[in-house]
Specification:
Layout lengths: L2 H16 L18 H15 L3 H13 L30 H17 L6 H15 L33 H10 L4 H8 L6 E3 L4 H5 L13 H10 L10 E3 L11 H7 L6 H6 L6 H9 L1 H15 L21
Antiparallel strand pairs: 1-2
Helix pairs in contact: 2-4, 2-5, 3-4, 3-5, 4-5, 7-13, 10-12, 12-13
GO molecular function: heme binding; lactoperoxidase activity; metal ion binding
Family: Belongs to the peroxidase family. Ascorbate peroxidase subfamily.
GO biological process, one term: hydrogen peroxide catabolic process
């Protein structure tokens, strides 16, 4: 049996165990109810990524922020109103890229015209993340479909459910462990930082205020640190200033992220610390020399993330608009 077929079989078995039989997910969920689902998604995603190459990183980040808070249910897509402060307006989510929300809106609009009330916003976000990873050069993995959109979105639920860039490696390991992910899975998933960017405020301490003895983190490549200091000189005035997570191949999904960590070119403190911590270093070193191992582990971990605490049946809905409940 081929590895991809075995992976799908194992994923399907997992779904069968945790989801009631009447609401099982499948890769062919929209085959009859919305036959052009994949075609429409491909067209929308390709057009958006071509026009705005940072879309892949934007969608991947929103996907993670959505799934890690109460499960993959599209709750991060919901906008606040006079009666509710939604997840999107939690402090850590205020910098979520607009390209991700724009893509979901475009896709939902097109799908509602084709097959009204059928495709969930959560499935749109999940399939978009997978397709964009592949478009950026990363691995393909199976995405089971049929999720429902969640019925709750509260900014107050976000704190404690997302990892922060200044956490210790131990804190990040425990954070992922509570959600059912091991150290190897964690290191693979953090490899998503191979694309995208971070605002200067997220790593300013490493380049300006590290300690009384040194303004810069000694684990950071000194030439790299100077470049970041120049880039972020006015970040307190302009908080939108940002740097690519992967300084070498910022738009390509590859294993360069791990090679960068070995060279002191990690942007975020927690990421760089993984290259030294004995619990995470073996996986950093493995992925740095073996991109296939990284892609395989990342694909398996993403399949697992994509079904984390999903809503099905009467526990959710198919929103008519992704930014508001029905």
């Amino acid at each position: 049996m081929e590895a991809s077929s075995l992976r799908l079989l194992l994923l399907s078995a997992t779904i069968f165990l945790v989801i009631p039989a009447e609401s099982k997910l499948s890769i062919n969920h929209y085959e009859k109810s919305c036959p052009r689902f994949h075609e429409i998604m491909y067209q929308i995603i390709t057009a958006k990524q071509t026009a705005s190459p940072t879309t892949a990183a934007a969608v991947l980040r929103v996907f993670f922020h959505d799934c890690m808070v109460g499960g993959c249910d599209g709750s991060t897509l919901v906008a606040s109103n006079a009666f509710n402060k939604a997840e999107r307006d939690a402090d850590i989510n205020l910098s979520l890229p607009g390209d991700a929300f724009d893509l979901v809106t475009r896709a939902k609009t097109a799908l509602e015209l084709e097959c009204p009330g059928v495709v969930s916003c959560t499935d749109i976000l999940t399939i978009s993340a997978r397709n964009l990873i592949k478009m950026a050069g990363g691995p393909f993995y199976q995405v089971l479909l049929g999720r429902k959109d969640g019925l709750v979105s509260l900014a107050s639920r976000v704190a404690g459910n997302l990892a922060f860039p200044n956490m210790t490696v131990t804190e990040v390991i425990e954070h992922f462990k509570l959600k059912g992910f091991g150290v190897r899975e964690m290191v693979a998933l953090v490899g998503a930082h191979t694309v995208g960017f971070s605002h200067c405020s997220e790593f300013s301490k490493r380049i300006f205020y590290f300690s009384k003895k040194s303004p810069t983190d000694p684990t950071m490549n000194p030439v790299y640190a100077k470049g970041l200091q120049k880039l972020c000189m006015n970040y307190s005035i302009d908080p939108t200033i940002a740097a690519f997570n992967d300084v070498m191949t910022p738009g390509k999904f590859d294993n360069m992220y791990y090679k960068n960590l070995q060279r002191g070119l990690g942007l975020l403190a927690t990421d760089q610390a993984m290259a030294e911590d004995p619990r995470t270093k073996p996986f950093v070193d493995l992925y740095a020399v073996n991109e296939t191992a990284f892609f395989d582990d990342f694909a398996r971990a993403m399949e697992k993330v994509s079904i984390y605490k999903i809503k099905t049946g009467r526990h959710g809905e198919v929103r008519r608009r992704c930014d508001q409940f029905n």
